[in-house]
């Protein structure tokens, strides 16, 4: 059986089983995930909101990385020219 990265799995008797096309399905969590999948609109909205927050955070990281890269190039060129 593949190692689990959830430390509470053994405590509560959660057994993982392989499902084609899915990464993992836990028998104890299957009931709650089915309720979410069937039509829990609040959970769907929350997940969408969280995904947009994550996308916004990634966008900020990319912008900051580009700024640092351009600053580095500018400093390097300036160093070469004024040497």
Question: What descriptors fit this protein?
Answer:
83 residues, mainly alpha, 2 helices, 2 strands, rod-shaped
Which structural class is indicated by helix and strand composition?
Answer: mainly alpha
Which strands sit side by side, in order, in the main sheet? 1-2
| Count of separate DSSP helical elements | 2
Instruction: Specify the overall morphology.
Output: rod-shaped
Summarize the amount of helix as a percent range.
Answer: 55-70%
The main sheet comes to: 2 strands, antiparallel
Oligomer: single chain
Proportion of strand residues:
under 5%
Q: Mean pLDDT, as a whole number? A: 75
Distance between the termini: 62 Å
Q: Over all CA atoms, what is the radius of gyration?
A: 23 Å
Report the count of strand segments. Answer: 2
What is the ordering of alpha helices and beta strands?
EEHH
Low-pLDDT sequence parts? none
Q: Count structural domains.
A: 2
InterPro entries: DUF3511
Pfam families: DUF3511 (PF12023)
Transmembrane segments: 21-39
Keywords: Membrane, Transmembrane, Transmembrane helix
